[in-house]
Amino acid sequence: MHPTTHLTKGAAAALLLAAGVSAAPSPGTAVTCENNASNNTVYTAQNAQFDILCGIDYSGGDMGAERVSTFAECITRCDSTPGCINVAFAPWGMCWLKNQNTTPSPNSGVWTAKSKAALTGLTCIDNFSDKKTYTSPGGTAFDIACGVDYAGGDMSSRNTNTFKECVDACGSTPGCVNVAYSAPSCYLKSAMMAPRTNSHVWAAVRKDADADPLTCENKKWDAREFTTKDNRVYSIGCGDDYAGGDMAAVDSATFQGCLEACDAASGCINVAYVAPRCYLKNVANPPAKGTHVWGAKFLRVNVPTPPAPTPYTCNPCSPVMLNPSFDDGTNSWTQRDVSNSVISSISAGSVSGSAVQVVSTRGYAVLAQKLSVVTGSTYSLTVDYMFSAAMTNCYLNAFINGGWFWSFSPRYEPTSVGAWKKSPVLQFTASACDTELAIQFVCTAGESVTMKLDNIKVTGGPTCPAKASRSLRGLERRRLA
Ligand SMILES: *[C@@H]1O[C@H](CO)[C@@H](O)[C@H](O)[C@H]1NC(C)=O
Ligand SMILES: *[C@@H]1O[C@H](CO)[C@@H](O)[C@H](O)[C@H]1NC(C)=O
Ligand SMILES: *[C@@H]1O[C@H](CO)[C@@H](O)[C@H](O)[C@H]1NC(C)=O
């Protein structure tokens, strides 16, 4: 349900502010979901045609959000933005551009336009090129793997405008065996590390990645750099004998195995390989050239690409939120961006004890609260609400860290007027410990409306074991180990 999750806090604040002062969508626009008028029709923009889907949201895949006044303007923005294939328009004047069609879900507050243009070129948008083979101009074939990260093994990085440019750069770089592309960052890699799922990484793996084993046969790897699985980079010198400085000798069936033995031996900085004998050295004597020895000199440890964020535990045993039902007044909530509105804590007519009331005349008001959440966990938000009148241009919005993910207007559901209603269950996945929930009430066209809120509840996340049993389990684990 969240058309956007990527707005920065600053952008969100600007949004919240703008939402209260900008004009309502102008009536009589050709393409509209007012009364579902344009539902299931095709809208022709300058470059592409778009299917109009009223009350449907393809959440996620956001490229950015912009204030616009009409649905047509929103579609035009997408039509002229490279990579945009879908928009979500919220009729209070917000437009999200998307570069993916995710799974659609019903959301009465969202109007969607979905491009009919076919995807072309090399792209992981909608997994378009996934599992396909791509051949770069130099004739190197790559297997495309969308959403896969072979983290580590980096040899260099650059910014490229397209995935193709990134893969082509690998194709023309000796020793490059795969790339990770997370637009616009392009990482060239000289070693195949273990793959892991990472939805925003697009990978291309040289088909012959394993067909280029480290060898000095025909001086194949001479003067090239080789990266081992431990991310240590060696310069290969076919015929270089780093005589002396021996710390140990082992047998290894392969040259690569010899370098791995050096990795494992503390202090080892170069090797001399005379198959199967592998001499590990801790002194860098100048090499004798032109021998039958396959030499390698340790250069550096690569700094691997930052690993995908692992779920981070952030006060998992605190309540997710304080005062969901306003029973201590609005003290746990920050009131801000209040303009032409009055926020008060009330008890009459509330579902349980107390509730909050916002009276707005062409205004807006935000109630915000920090949540105690665990990154990567999924939470459910529910809100009880009541509007005093079925005003066309009043909306109740919910934001997580500035990312709008729910909007509701009484015009879509007249039965919410004068009666408490329960919102649908709105789910979000916490992307950071430092998470803020903001509930915004906004009227854009001069109405005087009262809205009441109660039971703003966020639940979910990991269950918190009792302290005693947790330490007991730790103890058992230690004993078993
Ligand atoms: C729009 O369509 C939805 C779903 O079919 C329906 O529930 C709603 O009443 C319609 N709204 C109008 C104004 O026709
Ligand atoms: C829009 O049209 C589609 C296809 O006819 C229909 O399934 C859907 O319920 C309609 N939506 C609304 C909101 O009317
Ligand atoms: C792409 O494929 C992956 C793995 O099959 C899947 O999890 C993901 O949802 C797909 N993404 C899109 C946008 O279809």
TrEMBL record:
Signal peptide span: 1-23
Domain Apple: start-end pairs: 56-98, 148-189, 241-281
Transit peptide among keywords: no
InterPro entries: Galactose-bd-like_sf (IPR008979), Pan_app (IPR003609)
Pfam families: PAN_4
Keywords from the named record: Signal
Superkingdom of origin organism: Eukaryota
Keyword Chaperone: no
PANTHER family: COAGULATION FACTOR XI, PTHR33946
Name the UniProt record assigns to this protein: Apple domain-containing protein
Organism annotation: Staphylotrichum longicolle
Taxonomic lineage: Eukaryota, Fungi, Dikarya, Ascomycota, Pezizomycotina
